[in-house]
Fold this sequence. Notes:
With 264 residues, this protein is an alpha/beta fold. The protein has two domains: 3-79 and 155-263, P-loop containing nucleotide triphosphate hydrolases (Rossmann fold); 89-154. It has ten helices and ten strands. Strand 4 and strand 5 (71-72) form a beta hairpin. Helix 2 (95-105) packs parallel to helix 4, helix 3 (110-123) packs across helix 4 (139-152) and helix 4 (139-152) runs parallel beside helix 5. Residues 13, 24, 42, 44-50 line the site of adenosine-5'-diphosphate (ADP).
Amino acid sequence: xxxxxxxxxxxxxxxxxxxxxxxxxxxxxxxxxxxxxxxxxxxxxxxxxxxxxxxxxxxxxxxxxxxxxxxxxxxxxxxxxxxxxxxxxxxxxxxxxxxxxxxxxxxxxxxxxxxxxxxxxxxxxxxxxxxxxxxxxxxxxxxxxxxxxxxxxxxxxxxxxxxxxxxxxxxxxxxxxxxxxxxxxxxxxxxxxxxxxxxxxxxxxxxxxxxxxxxxxxxxxxxxxxxxxxxxxxxxxxxxxxxxxxxxxxxxxxxxxxxxxxxx
Length: 264
Ligand SMILES: Nc1ncnc2c1ncn2[C@@H]1O[C@H](COP(=O)(O)OP(=O)(O)O)[C@@H](O)[C@H]1O
Ligand SMILES: [Mg+2]
């Protein structure tokens, strides 16, 4: 079991034309175990991407620390793989070539790379697509290749920034189930960002709500709907549960807490 810890994180951005900086994240404490599926939800601009970038090691916090298993990170690492919404696959490589690419960087031999790429593609349900060119793949398939590539380096945590945001509703719904399956099978901790309350509730073992200005955690709620989905309950059944509706209402109120005042 691994733990990704964000400890007392704060982040300031310099403001253009202003000597003072602006606080974007404040006092973030979040500990994610590698058997958890943590979903961070919040309005646009609440600091979700900033938080993920800090966890990935792409940026450094103004205050606080990011640790993996008690050791402070000093940048991106193979223990944390990142998937973005419009993940850029290399168009000059095949699907298998894309998945094998991180392994090449690690110095894995060609035969072994090919074997592992096929294995990973099978894991994401693309058994026979290894030889396909990127432009031959649908949006959902591309995202699967991106996730297989992220898994290739054997990360302990998958960090996903709105990975399904660009997909149509039906594909998105299929991909949600797919993400849960991958998470169960790969035993990789997940930190997923979304602004869809339904998606948060269907996937998470814990939902974290981020309130804006400055971005801070205002709720940390354990949920079990993902488990029900994995056990074969349909999305429709789950969404009709009273517990689901209540939590949906609660999250809506939390996320949009101060908007009504503005509208009124
Ligand atoms: N590199 C940056 N420099 C300055 N301000 C930024 C930068 N990145 C994001 N911001 C600002 O920080 C706030 C949080 O942004 P972001 O983390 O992207 O939020 P979210 O992903 O929740 O929409 C926003 O107000 C955004 O304009
Ligand atoms: Mg964002």
